[in-house]
Design a protein that fits this description.
alpha+beta; two-stranded parallel ribbon; about 10% strand
């Protein structure tokens, strides 16, 4: 039996890795943001996402 090839996971997880990817010009289909996250760094991230017209979705904390 041949092993299955691993799927490439194109998710970026974490505030800092997302920020770095944006700074490097990585294309993103959308960004998931914790619904109750309202701190300053999140506001800045949302501003960049809006400016680049990158869709964003809010999700409940603790949900996968």
């Amino acid at each position: 039996m041949r092993p299955r090839p691993k799927k490439q996971d194109d998710r970026i997880i974490g505030w800092h890795p997302i920020k770095e990817a944006l700074e490097e010009g990585v294309e993103m289909a959308r960004v998931l943001i914790q619904r109750d996250s309202k701190d300053e760094k999140t506001k800045q991230l949302l501003s960049v996402l809006r400016a680049r017209q990158i869709p964003r979705s809010a999700r409940a904390p603790g949900k996968g």
